[in-house]
Design goal:
The chain has 141 residues and is an all-beta fold. It has one helix and twelve strands. It has a seven-stranded mixed sheet with strand order 1-2-6-3-9-10-11, with no helix packed on it. A five-stranded antiparallel sheet has the order 5-4-7-8-12. A hairpin with a 4-residue loop joins strand 1 and strand 2. The longest helix has 4 residues. InterPro entries: Self-incomp_S1.
């Protein structure tokens, strides 16, 4: 576990329950990245203060971590995600985007052939990222 003055992060492969405290600075946010591809997914996430390391996520499995947003709400987790010829780097959690109704306590991402799909806590798909690097021959060009 990495501990900073205002931010805490922990990468794990098991489901954890959020703390039941309503203060936004003492409540954990949980991020889930689910691999819906037919091959392994390589994920490397980091914030300004914490490097969560590289992880291999098998098909139909997920990678998750939890953290507390910092006091000035600048918490940002950026992830490099790849599988075969598909790859890209994405802002998976941004406090100013996500902490106000999108996914304050649970941010879910599903990685598919057509890109990375982000879901709000109410289950609505509201944020999609295309693959940044998909070799042309993957699409028959």
């Amino acid at each position: 576990m990495f501990i900073c003055s205002w931010e805490e992060a922990r990468g794990t492969s098991r489901l954890v329950q959020p703390d039941v405290i309503d203060d936004k600075f003492s409540t954990y946010t949980h991020v889930y990245i689910t691999n819906q591809l037919h091959s392994d997914l390589h994920v490397h996430c980091a914030s300004k203060d914490d490097d969560l390391g590289s992880h291999v996520v098998p098909s139909n499995q997920f990678y998750t971590w939890r953290f507390k947003i910092n006091f000035i709400e600048s918490t940002l987790f950026h992830c490099s995600i790849s599988s075969g010829r598909l790859s890209g780097s994405y802002d998976i959690y941004k406090a100013l985007r996500d902490n106000y109704g999108r996914c304050k306590r649970k941010c879910s991402w599903f990685v598919r052939e057509d890109g990375i799909h982000g879901y709000r806590e109410d289950g609505v798909d509201d944020l999609d990222f295309s693959w940044q690097n998909a070799e042309d021959d993957l699409h028959g060009n």
